[in-house]
């Protein structure tokens, strides 16, 4: 039996209280210290984006300080240029909006005619019907109708003039204007200045900061800390570079597309699209909505609006479904739900800057969870790595009786590997988990039946050798007193007879698979039999008792030397050594010309290799169903012959 992980002691009430208090303190520090933390975190992330450029300049021949200054100056020039370009475009759009007032008014009237106008018409027709039936009431007064009517800006009624207000002094002193401009721009300029200063020092002392962090966090375990830092740095660098490249390409594509279809200020919308695409999932569509409204306002018809929507749909679908998976796939290692939740969480703490940094911040938490055991919860909750292994998922679904989900995952697995590999790597380890729980009394008899029926359904459905009408005819008649392997074998005996096929066959065309009698052995032997029959090899599942039953009867139609190979299956070679040797001796005495292959499975959850039995009468020893299938393929390179059954599906390759 495999060794199991030691059970962790349950946390006491005081420990849980301390964890809650610590989390509350961390959240309070993140929220109230955002004015200091946001510039520092932003500078650290920018350093990861700039580090490859610094290394490039150093390889060219510049010194470390000069490389840092060139990279920072280039960053400042690019950001300043884009900000100035964006500001000029915004001013241009704001100045051009009045000339689109007539178009906006016309389209609002058109929309009103198609919506509220039709509703008014329907209301009038309904009023006529009610009046003709004599159930109507007196028509509402004009004042009442007006009180519940449409807003003035959606009607043609003249708007009441507003009372004249006293003219105020609109001009202000130049000093006041400069003061208002500086007060508005001071906060972003201050943040940008702090980020720039911190960025310079982080790049200058990159190696020193890394060593200090290793000394602080790693202590004596330098290997694990270095691996964690390298993992986080590589993931974040790939994320920033690939995301920046993709978003820049999307912005260029939108700019060119809008220019071609004739939307004014296409450069502005391209820049906004590239910037807002850093906001997960919703950013690009917010810009698309604004651009679509702008396109509807500037053109008399609706064609420009439709072309704008189609442009955004086509570009985003191509990028998200083709380019991004091909370029960097699952670079972040975050689940989609974690990205959405992280965006909500960090935007609630730090506002728009937190929304932009939500993905890299969450990625840092996931990397920490992968390398720090105490933070493994973060990796489980936020990472895209499956929380359960495939065998664990199969066992969990079988406990719930959900054979359909097991089949869905099995078909995905079989697209990449063989049915023998699925049995070795998934099905048998899952049943090993069931054996452990059964030995410990952790599952009830009802759960045992659910597992049994689910596994029988999965094996029968995946077996291409049997016809669907045969499976349907005997469906779910699983006897509680019979093991899974015996149940599956019984199904084949119902279709092919007591000996699972005719006895008059070609010489050396039959392969016998002998189990040692336990539940695990019966199932493994039956799986091997079905794998070989899928290879169109006449394999038959027998037990030691079947030899005695066979000798008790006369079989004049039996073909001499019909058996070519004999597989003796043992799922616990150490405990079943005596039974294994007895079965080998029996097979060798009855069928001396056959090649005897021992299938001795190592325990799936064991930490050390299981010693395999050594028997002089055994020709080969294999330790998996896939290796056993390869032995049969080597002996029957073109397949064997199987008894014909009406409606049988064609065999599949293993």
UniProtKB/TrEMBL annotation:
<dbReference type="InterPro" id="IPR002549">
    <property type="entry name" value="AI-2E-like"/>
</dbReference>
<feature type="transmembrane region" description="Helical">
    <location>
        <begin position="66"/>
        <end position="87"/>
    </location>
</feature>
<feature type="transmembrane region" description="Helical">
    <location>
        <begin position="12"/>
        <end position="30"/>
    </location>
</feature>
<keyword id="KW-0812">Transmembrane</keyword>
<feature type="transmembrane region" description="Helical">
    <location>
        <begin position="343"/>
        <end position="368"/>
    </location>
</feature>
<keyword id="KW-0813">Transport</keyword>
<keyword id="KW-1133">Transmembrane helix</keyword>
<feature type="transmembrane region" description="Helical">
    <location>
        <begin position="185"/>
        <end position="204"/>
    </location>
</feature>
<feature type="transmembrane region" description="Helical">
    <location>
        <begin position="36"/>
        <end position="54"/>
    </location>
</feature>
<dbReference type="Pfam" id="PF01594">
    <property type="entry name" value="AI-2E_transport"/>
</dbReference>
<feature type="transmembrane region" description="Helical">
    <location>
        <begin position="244"/>
        <end position="272"/>
    </location>
</feature>
<keyword id="KW-1003">Cell membrane</keyword>
<feature type="transmembrane region" description="Helical">
    <location>
        <begin position="304"/>
        <end position="323"/>
    </location>
</feature>
<comment type="similarity">
    <text>Belongs to the autoinducer-2 exporter (AI-2E) (TC 2.A.86) family.</text>
</comment>
<keyword id="KW-0472">Membrane</keyword>
<protein>
    <submittedName>
        <fullName>PurR-regulated permease PerM</fullName>
    </submittedName>
</protein>
<feature type="transmembrane region" description="Helical">
    <location>
        <begin position="278"/>
        <end position="297"/>
    </location>
</feature>
């Amino acid at each position: 039996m495999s060794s199991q992980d030691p059970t962790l002691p349950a946390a006491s009430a005081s420990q849980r209280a301390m964890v809650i208090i610590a989390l509350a303190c961390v959240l309070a520090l993140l929220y109230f210290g955002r004015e200091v933390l946001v510039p520092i975190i932003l500078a650290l992330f920018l350093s990861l984006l700039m580090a490859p450029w610094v290394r490039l300049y150093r390889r060219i021949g510049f010194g470390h300080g000069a490389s840092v200054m060139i990279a920072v100056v280039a960053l400042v020039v690019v950001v300043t240029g884009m900000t100035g370009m964006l500001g000029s475009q915004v001013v241009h759009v704001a100045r051009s909006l009045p000339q689109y007032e007539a178009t906006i008014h016309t389209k609002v009237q058109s929309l009103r005619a198609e919506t509220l106008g039709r509703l008014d018409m329907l209301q009038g027709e309904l009023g006529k019907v009610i009046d003709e039936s004599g159930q109507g009431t007196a028509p509402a007064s004009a004042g009442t109708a007006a009180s519940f009517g449409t807003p003035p800006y959606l009607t043609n009624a003249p708007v009441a003039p507003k009372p004249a207000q006293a003219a105020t002094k609109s001009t202000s002193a130049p000093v006041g204007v400069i003061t208002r401009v500086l007060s508005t721009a001071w906060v972003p300029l201050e943040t940008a200045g702090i980020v720039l200063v911190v960025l310079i020092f982080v790049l200058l002392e990159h190696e020193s900061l890394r060593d200090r962090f290793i000394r602080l966090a790693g202590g004596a375990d330098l290997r694990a800390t270095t691996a964690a830092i390298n993992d986080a740095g590589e993931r974040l660098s790939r994320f920033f570079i690939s995301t920046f490249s993709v978003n820049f390409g999307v912005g260029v594509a939108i700019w060119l597309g809008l220019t071609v279809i004739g939307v004014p200020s296409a450069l502005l919308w391209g820049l906004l699209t590239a910037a807002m695409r850093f906001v997960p999932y919703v950013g690009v569509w917010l810009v698309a909505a604004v651009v679509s409204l702008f396109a509807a306002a500037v053109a008399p018809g609706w064609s420009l609006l439709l072309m704008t929507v189609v442009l955004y749909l086509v570009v985003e679908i191509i990028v998200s479904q083709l380019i991004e998976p091909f370029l960097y796939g699952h670079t972040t290692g975050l689940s989609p739900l974690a990205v959405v939740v992280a965006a909500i969480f960090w935007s609630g703490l730090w506002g728009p800057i937190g929304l932009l940094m939500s993905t890299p911040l969450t990625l840092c938490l996931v990397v920490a969870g992968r390398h720090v055991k105490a933070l493994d919860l973060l990796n489980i909750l936020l990472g895209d790595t499956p929380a359960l292994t495939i065998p664990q998922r199969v066992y969990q679904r079988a406990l719930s009786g959900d054979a359909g989900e097991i089949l869905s995952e099995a078909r995905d697995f079989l697209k990449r590997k063989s049915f023998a590999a699925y049995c070795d790597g998934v099905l048998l380890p899952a049943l090993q988990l069931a054996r452990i729980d059964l030995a410990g009394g952790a599952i009830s008899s009802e759960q045992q039946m659910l597992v049994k029926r689910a596994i029988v359904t999965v094996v029968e459905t995946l077996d291409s050798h049997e016809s669907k009408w045969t499976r349907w005819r005997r469906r779910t008649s699983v006897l509680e007193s019979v093991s899974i392997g015996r149940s599956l074998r019984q199904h084949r005996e119902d279709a092919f007879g007591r000996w699972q096929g005719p006895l008059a066959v070609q010489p050396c065309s039959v392969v016998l698979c002998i189990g040692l009698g336990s539940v695990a052995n019966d199932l493994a032997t039956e799986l091997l039999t079905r794998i070989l029959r899928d290879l169109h090899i006449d394999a038959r599942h027998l037990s030691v008792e079947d030899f005695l039953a066979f000798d008790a009867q006369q079989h004049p139609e039996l073909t001499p030397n019909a058996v070519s190979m004999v597989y003796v299956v043992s799922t616990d070679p150490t405990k079943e050594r005596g039974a294994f040797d007895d079965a080998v001796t029996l097979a060798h005495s009855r069928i001396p010309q056959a090649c005897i292959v021992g299938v001795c499975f190592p325990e799936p959850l064991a930490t050390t290799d299981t010693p395999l039995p050594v028997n002089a009468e055994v020709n080969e020893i294999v330790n998996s169903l896939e290796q056993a299938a390869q032995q049969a393929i080597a002996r029957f390179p073109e397949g064997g012959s199987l008894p014909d059954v009406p409606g049988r599906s064609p065999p599949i390759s293993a």
